[in-house]
Amino acid sequence: MTVKTTYNVAVVGATGAVGQKILKLLAEKEFPINEIKLLSSKRSAGKIISFNNKDVTIEEATPESFEGIDIALFSAGGSVSKELAPEAVKRGAVVIDNTSAYRMAEDVPLVVPEVNKEAIKDHKGIIANPNCSTIQMVTALKPIKEQFGLKRVIVSTYQAVSGAGTQATVELQKQAKQYLNNQELEANILPVKGDEKHYPIAFNALPQIDLFDEEGYTFEEMKMINETKKILDDQNLSVAATCVRLPFFTSHAESVYIEVEKAGVTVKDLWKELDSADGVILEDDPATQTYPTPLSAANKEAVFVGRVRKDLDNENGFHLWVVSDNLLKGAALNTVQIAQSVIKNNWL
Amino acid sequence: MTVKTTYNVAVVGATGAVGQKILKLLAEKEFPINEIKLLSSKRSAGKIISFNNKDVTIEEATPESFEGIDIALFSAGGSVSKELAPEAVKRGAVVIDNTSAYRMAEDVPLVVPEVNKEAIKDHKGIIANPNCSTIQMVTALKPIKEQFGLKRVIVSTYQAVSGAGTQATVELQKQAKQYLNNQELEANILPVKGDEKHYPIAFNALPQIDLFDEEGYTFEEMKMINETKKILDDQNLSVAATCVRLPFFTSHAESVYIEVEKAGVTVKDLWKELDSADGVILEDDPATQTYPTPLSAANKEAVFVGRVRKDLDNENGFHLWVVSDNLLKGAALNTVQIAQSVIKNNWL
Fold first, then answer.
1. Which of A223, A260, B131, B276 is deepest in the core (most CB within 10 A)?
2. With 70 as the cut, is the pLDDT of residue B327 above it?
3. B330 with B348: CB under 8 angstroms?
4. Which residues form the Semialdehyde dehydrogenase NAD-binding domain (chains A, B) (predicted)?
5. Active-site residue, B252 included
6. Which of B123, B198, B243, B252 is catalytic?
7. What mean pLDDT do residues B135-164 have?
């Protein structure tokens, strides 16, 4: 068996916020690239982007674009992935998909490398990158589950506008200026670009991320519920979620309540597991007001955990405050880490 | 027995944010005032404030200020209440105290009129107004508890900066301008004026409201836990709380997870109770993106509830999204409502 040492990599959605971060990480982490192909919609084709100090012309993504590609990183929206990921697989590429298109498909591994790297090896061509809010939560929960068992998760999120795309970021900036100038706030994007009504996000909180389903849950909440069970490989785990969009630009924060299975667990026990966990940085010292915040976690790769507390009324209950950059560990970084696992373990 | 028809009222802390709202409400609601006395620290004494189109000179609060006063409304901080509330009681006044000084004292009723008005009649001179984040939550929980029983509450809050005083409001405005002008953010007040470190709140989230206790809980979280049990008169109720300060000016929002005692309860059952509950307005229709937000609830008197959902994994679990103006129902309005109950029922 010949093992390749460099790879032909395609990035689909290269001009988007996540695509840009992926390119930056591939370069920074010296991903062993033989040839890179930057793909996008017809609209952006022809633009030139610098990658590793070389100019690369963006091409329109078509089925034929994937000829000779070893690894294709998709982050151009669900419909593009639905159309083109199978075409890439057909041509021999391994797809790492950053949209929700394949996450819950039975034959598609849904992977956070620190949590379930081994699932990658069963892939049939497509590996899915989970939703941003799920990734950071399961990264923090994994070491706890492994050591003490996990019965239940109840999470309330505090999510940054960049999760809704660059336009949402611009909208928050605009509205904040309007508010400070005593002008009326114009809302055209948030809470959900594709939904009917829009509400101001500046100096506000919107309890809607993505569209609503028939049970009154948002798709974002359902993603957290379903993806958490799949990644932690536990359909008996009870997961409840409320997702809220807030007026900050980067990083999602999460107030996570858990019940562990084992009796007699202490805050120190959790600290010990979190402190030694892969991808987690513990920032938790009330005496010195040490805890993570969206601003402190921005542009960093780790999942930060603080405010670990034992429920005063329930022996097995604990609180965690989990913060991470939603565009890094929540998206681009996790995608690149999956790609690194694929080549390191020869799981192509 | 002679029943008075007008009352001598003192407002202590008349120049503060809550004091100002109290004066506005007393006038708007035509509280039957014979004489009003506006009291404050030495610093503000001598200032003139307009009340009901009459100029009133602010006097320094001293024990003697309360001679002849029937009702004294305190919102000038815990130390002022500790010193002067007993002096007011000694001189025959009923004190309604808006600080945390007496809330957990055994012989002091802690009252939200919609929830436990009857507790007022056992007062020994002092009636306590609960913490803002507690008031709106128990107002929403009361009708549910009464009809279906309540086993458990797990709340994560989204709290406005005005809860930390006028200086915190000014700080958010300043920092937001600094951020938009690419200047460094100056933090001198939040998360807690009296604590050692200060962090930016603009475009951020701070998981600290009030100081930390030795268990790693903040006092705000302990207030929610202890006050909820006292007001709902149920020491067996399990309450867990995480309190977070966010970059908006007015209204607290709360992601409240509950477990009811009765089996087979539906979302429609909860809607019915909430819809007819005193002080509650149900705003819950996912199909039309109807839910309350901090901006939509600001300057309104009700407690707004939306996003009512049944936990998909736990038969007795439900989610609520509870929003209310923290300076109105959370503070000034509740204080005035207690005063109204006192005189209406002749509980002086």
1. B131
2. yes
3. no
4. 8-123
5. yes
6. B252
7. 98
* pLDDT mean over B54-73: 97
pLDDT of residue A238: 98
pLDDT of amino acid A4: 78
> For chain A, what are the domain ranges?
7-130+331-344, 134-326
Query: Are B294 and A199 an interchain contact pair (Cβ–Cβ within 8 Å)?
Result: no
Q: In this predicted structure, what is the pLDDT of residue B2?
A: 61
Token pair listed for A42: 């017809």
Q: Which of A266, A283, A289, A316 to substitute to test the interface with B, most B CBs within 10 Å?
A: A289
B178 inside 8 A of chain A by CB: no
Tell me how close the Cα of B234 comes to any Cα of chain A, in angstroms: 13
d(CA B276, CA A19): 50
How far apart are alpha carbons A53 and A37 in whole angstroms? 15
> Could you say which architecture CATH assigns to the domain A7-130+331-344?
3-Layer(aba) Sandwich (3.40)
For residue A59, what is the enclosing H or E element? strand A59-60
Average confidence (pLDDT) over B302-308? 98
Q: Which of A179, A208, A309 sits opposite B289 (nearest CB)?
A: A208
Give the model's pLDDT for residue A33: 97
3-class DSSP state of B89 = helix
Contact list, B311 vs chain A (CB under 8 Å):
238, 240
Q: What is the ipTM of this complex?
A: 0.97
Interface test with A, best of B157, B242, B284 (most A CBs within 10 A): B242
Torsion angle, alpha carbons of B252, B274, B226, A304, to 10:
-50
pLDDT at A322: 99
Instruction: Tell me the shortest Cα–Cα distance from A149 to chain B, in angstroms.
Output: 18
Torsion sign, CA atoms A51, A56, A57, A59: negative
DSSP assignment string, A119-159? GGGG-SSEEEPPPHHHHHHHHHHHHHHHHH-EEEEEEEEEB
First to last CA, chain B: 13
Q: Look at residue A3 in the predicted model and tell me its pLDDT.
A: 66
A252 given a catalytic annotation: yes
| Tokens matching residue B65 | 């200020």
Residues lower than pLDDT 50 in chain A: none
Q: How many CA atoms are closer than 13 Å to the CA of A80, on its beta-carbon side?
A: 21
B91 annotated ligand binder: no
Written as six digits, the tokens of B257 are 């997870």
* pLDDT over threshold 90, residue B164: yes
pLDDT tens by residue, B226-259? 999 999 999 999 999 999 999 999 999 999 999 9
**3-class secondary structure per residue, A209-259:** CCCECCCCCEHHHHHHHHHHHHHCCCCCCEEEEECCECCCCCCEEEEEEEE
pLDDT in tens, A44-82: 999 999 999 899 999 999 999 999 999 999 999 999 999
Q: What architecture is domain B134-326?
A: 2-Layer Sandwich (3.30)
B1 pLDDT higher than 60: no
CA angle in degrees (0–180, nearest 5) for A67-A68-A74? 70
User: How many angstroms separate the Cα of A84 from the Cα of each of A23, A88, A108, A131, A343?
Assistant: 20, 6, 16, 20, 22
The mean predicted confidence, pLDDT, of chain B is 97
**Is residue A81 marked as binding?**
no
Instruction: Give the best residue of A307, A321, A322, A324 to mutate against chain B (max B CB count within 10 A).
Output: A307
